[in-house]
Design goal:
Chain lengths: 225, 247
Amino acid sequence: MSTSGTGSEPPCKSEAELDLLGDEQLLAYVIEMREAGRDDCLRAAFGVLAFGYWDFVASLVSKKANPRDIEDLTAVVIESALRSAFDGKTIGEFVNWLKTITARRIADFYRTREGRPSAEPLPSEHAGDDTIFANEPVSEEEGYAAIEIREAAGRVLAGRKEIHQLVIRLTAPPELGWGEDLPAAEVAERVTDTHPGAGMTDANVYQIWKRFKTDLDKELGLGGS
Amino acid sequence: MSADNPHDSDTEGAGGGSVEQLLAEFRASFEAGDRPSVRELLDRAPEGERQELESAIDSFLMQTPRRRWDPVAYESSPAKLSVARVWDSLEGVSGSWPEVLRRLRNAAQVDRKTLTRRLAEALGFSGTAEQERVHGYYHQMEHGLLPAEGVSDRVLEALAAIIDTNAEQLRRAGRGVLPQGEPGSLSAFARTAMPDPEYAERDFPTRAYTEDDSTLGFGAQSLDAPSPAPAGRPRRHDALDALFLDG
């Protein structure tokens, strides 16, 4: 059952209604509700996305991760994806974006673990023992979709003026290879530090990012969102 | 490729199988919601055919529609816990603390009561009443209810020492910036999709908490309890409050 908003606010859709939407429509709904100030509508959309893609992500993770890490890494990927959806930072088709985030998070996970002392031997110390799964840093096998996204992002970024490039770099998710994934308020603060006369605000940051993302989606053949 | 019949040819060895068989096995298991291990299947494939199987599984996954909504299955799923963590972070005033603190605390294998007792002691408070107030403030941090800018560096430094991170990471998380793989962050950050019940909280029973907290394993726990400032008993804003509220 839909939940009506007050006045002219758009109504919330139920999980059952959201389940009928395709990924792009679902992500567009998240952005639409955020822009309308209806954050209360988003939890159902998050539920549909998280539930709908949990097993997909777990399968991707299970290719590379130690079995005991699969559930935890899947949660990290899903939570990153939900944040991307909330921030309007998903790029390209959602399944490709999930695949990109998954590869990135697995690489981060094992790279970080490498920097910490561990009581457990690495798999290379078990040469010949097939029961030991890869628990060492993995290469960033992010596939053609991720490479395509990065290259397209680079092309679109290159066409922006310098201050907008800075905003986009600070805002972009790390999956692009150069993004710092900062919240809009922090981006505005950082840009104001280096460009005091620019008058950068959270709203400016959001608009600059939104235009970049629209052009990037077009560059990727999705026609923008 | 006869992916529909997993048993229509000889297997390649004990527990092995052809690409077609293994793909069919994966499909059947995935569609049944069993979360099969791709790695395990790849290991069972003939050595020269693993890449073919991996591509076939990838292709299947990329073409398979999102799992249909199932409210009953969702209730007990880890997906619901992930949504709860993200939701607390987004809706609260504590940045990413609801996601980060719960994960790090569980990774450090310390229950909330023990953590807050150690935190109180590190801050110089040894009395039971003071420890309960520290517990109340920490509870608010984990649920996105305590403004991050009000929490002092001293608290974050003491907390960081307990949950094996650093104060700067916690400060950044409080501003909504999630750790991105720096040492001391993500490997621990990714250890707690399903919190170990051993480290869930069992103390401070008050009114029944919302659906989310109960599924997170925090037992009978209220969003606003234990209260750092018990209702009906006005109390002066003291040094302990200042550590959590005045930045």
